[in-house]
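Supplementary Note 3. Input sequence used for the single-chain structure prediction.
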Amino acid sequence: MRSSPVLPLLALVVGLIHAGDAPVVETPAKTGPAKPAVVKKLTAMELVAEDERWVFRPTVGRSDIFVDLEQVLNAQFQLKLAQQQSAVRRDGPTGKPGEQPRDGDIDQLLTWSKAEDARVRVLIGARKYEEAMRAADATLKQLDPHLSRPDVAPLIVSIRTYRAQAEEAKIRDDAQIAFEALKIRVLGILWSQDGSRMAIIDGESRAVIVNDRVKDCAVINIDQDRVDFRFVFGRRRFEFPVYVADRNQSKP
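The predicted structure, written as discrete structure tokens, is reproduced below.
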């Protein structure tokens, strides 16, 4: 039995009618996958230049922990010296530094002595040891007759202590200057077969060991990078190190 061609035709017409009633959905145009942005890779020199342009800007009121500690200590020391000098000018009597009171008023003597005590400390901090010793001696000469007073005795002890410190510091500085004038130069350190160290000293014909003498200075220790010498100055013994000299240096 042959199928009628009308049925497929009717089915096609019904499908087109339903397709016309359905909403039309627009499909977006295919644009392809998004390409990532190309980032230029900096060279080593460009990275260094970029790092050098960076400036650290701390928050307002925030303490900066990257400040050089040596600069902080130096600033604190200078501030302390300025405060002591200000106290000397404020509390001390008018006139030249070290000028003694003319009358016998003990209160004026105490005020002047306290100012001189502070001035001695300032001079020691400035490494002016001879001037500090002269100021201390002049002050002690005025205070010694009043040693029995309870308000004078502590001041005398303080000035004598700082005077002794100034004297010790001056002696050591003089000894170090005299030792450096010998111009001892260590060229290198050697190890002997028995394990002991030997030092090569400029101008010596052989390597020296502990207890040898170089320019009338006894060798008391030989380390990896230095040699310690015992130096006699003013009937006192001092120990000074001399480090291995750099080849580019002309003096130790």
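The chain has a mean pLDDT of 76. The radius of gyration is 44 Å.
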